[in-house]
Amino acid sequence: MKYKRVLLKLSGESLAGDGEYGLSAEVLKSYAAQIRTVVEAGVQVGIVIGGGNIFRGMQGIDKGFDRVKGDQMGMLATVINSLALESALRGEGVRAKVLTSICMEPVGEYYSKDKALDYLQRGWVVIIGGGTSNPYFTTDSASALRAIEIEADVLLKGTRVDGIYDADPEKHPDAVKFETISFDEIYRRGLKIMDLTAFTLCRENGMPVVVFDMDTEGNLGQVVAGEPIGTLVRM
């Protein structure tokens, strides 16, 4: 395998499957099976999941909540998703542990870098819920932060699209996909692959990012093996 330790960022919306909200048992099982394959190959896997299939902090503003309360509700949504994936992984025979950035024991153990590394080095999948624990930060930022903290080789951003294009491929059929692209070129072109805070964290700390389609079974294993799946964002 090309990468020995990865931080996998999963979209909350993807966990809903064909539905608009909630959790899809089929998607959870597919993701868990793909993760099991790379763990069995000796790869250490940390995971951060969004919460958009349940609640987004920005949605709270439209519903009368202030931003801080809305973001806190979104953090709790990520913990629900983390617990669901933990259960799916255990169903596949994978040892998995939810760590939370907010003290929520016994729901999950309180996150620390040392604790995460200890589990990873013993072959456990570590799912870090609760975002950064602070309002005004997205789970993209949380995934960048955790990737840097656990000294991952790469941040893998699993999405519903198969990489980064020079335009929205759903609106522009002639859009061109990049196999590799630099952080500077993404910035110059104004491409939106993650929020600017997450983007800056990765660029300043030399953390490469691979954007790929997680919904196609087998893609995760190919990405971790170094196959040209998705788009690699490099320095």
UniProtKB/TrEMBL annotation:
It is an enzyme of class 2 (transferase). Its EC number is 2.7.4.22. Gene3D superfamilies: Acetylglutamate kinase-like (3.40.1160.10). It catalyses: UMP + ATP = UDP + ADP. GO terms for biological process: 'de novo' CTP biosynthetic process; UDP biosynthetic process. The keyword Lipoprotein does not apply. It comes from the Bacteria. UMP binds at residues 51, 71, 132-139. Keywords: ATP-binding, Cytoplasm, Kinase, Nucleotide-binding, Pyrimidine biosynthesis, Transferase. Pathway: Pyrimidine metabolism; CTP biosynthesis via de novo pathway; UDP from UMP (UMPK route): step 1/1. Residues 4-213 form the Aspartate/glutamate/uridylate kinase domain. Belongs to the UMP kinase family. PANTHER family: URIDYLATE KINASE, URIDYLATE KINASE PUMPKIN, CHLOROPLASTIC. HAMAP family: PyrH_B. Catalyzes the reversible phosphorylation of UMP to UDP. Homohexamer. This is Uridylate kinase. It comes from Candidatus Tidjanibacter faecipullorum.
